[in-house]
Every structure is written in C-alpha cells, then in structure tokens.
Specification:
This protein is mainly alpha-helical. A three-stranded antiparallel beta sheet has the order 2-1-3, with helices on one face. The radius of gyration is 41 Å and the shape is elongated. The termini are far apart.
Length: about 220
Amino acid sequence: MKRILLIAVAAVTLTACNNSKSDHTHAAHAAQEDQEKDAVTDQTKTKGAGVVDTIVKVALVETAAKTKTDAAVAKNRSLDEVYSAYFELKDALARDNGQAAQQAAQKMQAAVAKIDAAKLEAATAVAWKQYQRKLAFDTEHIAGIDENEHQREHFVTLSKNMYALLKVLRPDAPVYYQHCPMYNEGKGAHWLSKQEAIDNPYMGKSMSTCGSTVETIQ
C-alpha cells in the first residue's frame, strides 16, 4: 500500500513539473514574439522617419531653386524694359527721327527710375546703383529735346554706361558692341545693338552701314 502511495505522489509531482516547464516555455515564446514585434515596429518607425526627412529635404531644395529662379526672372524682366527702350532709341536715331528718339528716351527714363535696387540680387544691385544715375542723366536730356545732334551727344555717354552695365549683368541674348569711326570729326563713338548688321545711330540715313562690330556680349 505504501508503495502504491509513493508511486502516486511521484506521478503527481512529475505532472506538475511538466506543466510548470510548459508554462515557462510558453511565456518565453510569448516574450520573444513581443520583442520581435517591437523590433519590427522600431524599424518601421525608423524607415518612416527617414522617408519623411528625405521628402522634407527634397521640398526645401525645390523651394530654394524656385525662389532663386523667380528672383532671376524678376531681375531680367525689370532690366529688359531698360534694354528694350535703349534699342528703340538707337533705331530712332538711325532713322534720323528726333521725335521717336525722344519718346524712346522717355520710356527708358521711366524704366530706369522704377527699378528698386533693394529688390535686386546683391551683385546686380551693386552694379545697378553704380550706373542708374548716369543712365537717368542722359535719358532725361534726350527725352527733353527732339534735335538729333544733341540727342546723339548724350547717346554717346549713354551707350558707354550701358556697355559697362551689360559687361556685369550679362544679357540673355547676344548684344553687339559696335563702333562708328566717322562720328565727331573722326573721334568715333560706340553703341549697342541686338543685330549684328550695322545700322549706325550716329550717321543716320546718310551713312547707315558705316561701322563695325568690335565685341559680342553674351
């Protein structure tokens, strides 16, 4: 009888141990699964954060590039009005048309006056401040008269300053720096043109093709 009782007790003890081991094993597996899930979650968060950072960086680069492009476009548009009026003035003088030259000078005078250096890029602003008053001086004088010879006297210095400005603020399209050897009793003078073909603003219709291109600015 005692032997039977001992065997029964041993069997119960063994069963309890086995159940305990099974519970521990299950708990260990559960803990490991939780750790693996946490690791996957952390990796997902890290990857997600990396993607967001990349998107933000790309957006910042694109915004900076657009801002720079917009500033360049604004600069070109404001100066284009000055260039356009100058070339219109040059063409009027080449036709000996004092009134048309006067009107073109008025346009250029207004274009020069309305450019705010504070809104230009730093390098552009420095160059513009250097020549704005000089351009304003000659356009004001040409705009106030319709007599060609006096207009041409101011056109000499106007062209000189326009050339210096264009050497700093390069134009989008080629501009031709041209020379007339006959003007002012052979002393000569320069002007700027959009066309390579000579159309002399100093000699007018009498010698419209006199001169040559000495430099291409681009």
